[in-house]
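Q: I have 688 residues here and want to know how they pack in 3D. Can you give me a structure?
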Amino acid sequence: MIVREFTPKRKLSRNLSCAKRRKVAEKLFAIFTLATFGVISGLTFSVQAQTPYYHIDRSFSAVEFNIQGIPTEAQLNEEADKLTDIVQGTIKLNSNETYAIEKQMAIPICYGSAIAAWNAALAYNGTASNYPGKIFDNVGWVRGTKSTGSDWGAYIWVVQNKITFQSSTSCWYIITNNLPVAITNVMVGSLGDYQAMSNVVDIGPVIPSNYPGANQSDVGTYQVDISNVFYEVVIPDIWITPRDTGVALGNTNPVQFEVYGTNIPNGVTWTITPDGLTSGAVLQVSNDWHYASVMPGTVATNYKIRATSVDNTNFYDEVNFYVLKVELEELTFSGTKCHTVKSDDGVTDYTGPHWQDPNRDGDASDGHSYPVCFTRNTKMKASGKWHVEPANPGATIKIKGDGPGNLDFPETTASISGNDATLTDVECSNPFVNEVDFFDPMSIDWKFSFDDGSTWCTAGTSTNQCYITLGDPLTTAYQTLANLGCKNADGQSTTNATADAIYNEFTDRDVRRVSDSKQMTYWYNDQMGGRETGEILQRSDANGNCEAWSALFRDFLRVQGITADRIMAMPVSTNDGSILVKEWQFNDPPSGTGTYSYVIGTDAIDLNGVPGQGNSNPPGGFNGHWITLFNSQYYDPSYGSAKVTGADKDKAYEDGSLAGYGNLSGTAARKNDVSTNSTSELNYQVDN
C-alpha cells in the first residue's frame, strides 16, 4: 500500500478547533489513495496478479479422464472413482438488491492516541456511495492510523459488493431422461455453501475491525466469484442382478433377482411388466426388499423387472427377463466339398434346406430330411433358421451345435428379424475324419443362449443321413450309390479297400434301393430291364441287365472319387454267336459234328446256373457280357462273384464264369477250353 500525506497550500493553525478539523478531514479524505483498485470515483489504480477471492478463496476444476483406446475393466473402475455427485448449477440473482458500495471515513487529527483515533474511525458512519446492479471486480479496504504532530488520526476506506440471490430455484436437479435428484448443497463460487432455495444477502468482503497499531496501515484487495455455481446432489444408486436374463420356455424353476443400492433408505418396490398374463410370469417379493423372484410361467414373451426407490419414485433400475422359445425350423449344409445327393428317381436334387420342420415339432415328417454328402477330411458349414418367440426379443441370442464326436458348431450370434433367428455359413469346428464315414443319422443338438453363453437351452435337433466319401464324386451321387457305398466302406481310407468293401454289398446278391428298399434284380423273369445306372434305380421293377449292373458298381466307385470303367466282353471269334454262362451240362459224345458239336437242348443242357442279383437262375446264354474294371481287377456285379486279378485275368475270368460258346444260329455249342495253354477268347473294351 502507498500512503500519501496531503500537503495543504496553507498551514493549518494548531489552534483550529477539533470540530473544524474533523470537517476538514471529511472533505480531505482523498489524501489517502489506494494503489490496488481500479477506476472508482475518478481514482486510478492497477490490478495485482492473482488477486484472492473473498470469503472462500477456492477454485473448481472438472474431472478429467486419461483413457487411450478401449479401456480395461480396471481402468474403468479407476476412472469411475474420480466421479462425484457434483453438477454445475446457477443462482437467481436479484439485480435490484445487488450493488457495489463505496464508503469512506477519515479522522485526521485531534485524538490523543492512535487507538482512540482508530475507535473513532470505526464508530464513524459516513455516507456510502452505491452503484446499483454493479458488482466490482476488485474490492477491499485501506485502513490505518497516523500521527499528525502531537495528535493522532485514523482512516478507513471501503469498497464492497452487496450480492442478493436465491441459491437455486428448486430443490431438484434434472438429470438424464428428465429424472429429478435432490439438491443437498449449493456451492456459490467464493461466497460459500447454502441450502437449496436459500435467499441470500451477502456483503463482502468483511472489513477487519482489529486495531492495526500506531502508525500502521494495511490494504485488503479481493475479487469475488459467483460464476462457478455447483450443486451437490444425492443420486440414488439402484442395481439389479442378474442383468438381462431369462429362461427357455418350459423352465419351472424360479429366477432370483437381487437389488443393491445407495441413498435408498426405505428400500425399493418391485414390479413386473406385463403383469397378470394368463399363465404368464409371476413376481414373488421377499420380506427383505433386497430380493424378489420370478416364476417363468408358460408364455413366451419379454418382461421388464423394475426396482423403484420408495424415497424417490423417479429412480429405478430395470432389467429384461425373457421367457424364450427357440425352435429349429430349417437347416442347410454347405462347404467347399459339399456334394449334392440326387434322389434315386432322378427327380429331386437334395439341396438346402436339408432339414425342414415347418411345424417345429421336432421331426421333419411335415417337411423333409435330406441326405448330405461331403468329402472326407473337410469341414462342413451350416446355415439355419430358428423360430423365436417373442418376436424381436431384444436379447442377443447365441446358437451352437453339438454334433457326433467332435463335429461341433461354435457358438455364434444369431441375426434376429421378427420371429426369425438365423445363422449363415457357420463352419464346423473340426473336419470329418480322414476316411469314409456313414452317419445314419448325423444328429446335431442345437442350443441357444441369451446370457452370452452362461446358460444354454435346447433349440432343436436336426437329423440327416450324412455320407462321407473317400474323394470328390466323379458322377451323379444318387442316394443309393452314396448311401450304400459309404455304409459298406465305413472306416476305409484307401481306394482298394474302399472298392472291395463296397463290392461286399453285391456278393450276397441282395442289393436294395435306399429310396424304397426294393431289391434290384438281374434279368428277372428273363426280362432284360434297364441298361444304365439311372434306369435300374428308377424303374418300377428295379430290373436291369449286365450293362446296368456293371455301370451301377462303376458308379458306386465313382461316387467315392475312384476311377472305374464299365467293360464290354464280346467273343473274339466271329463264328461265336453267344457265350454260355455257367452252369451247362455237356453230354459226350456229342451228337453233332464240327466245332460246335454239342446240340443245344440235346447234348448241351442249360442247368440252374450261377445265381444273379435277385435271380436264382438267370438266362444261360448271352451275346456278350459287361463287367467292371478297377485297378486292373475285374468285378462281375451281375453275379456278385469273386473279383479276378492277375496278368492273365482275361482268361481267368472266362474260365471261372463261362461254360462254352454258341454258334451264330444258336443251335449248337462248344466247350470253353480250360487247358493250360489255352488263350482268352473274349475281347475286352471300355464301354462307359
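Q: Anything worth noting?
A: The longest strand covers residues 316-334. The helical segments are 18-27, 73-80, 114-123, 479-489, 495-507, 533-538, 546-559, 649-657.
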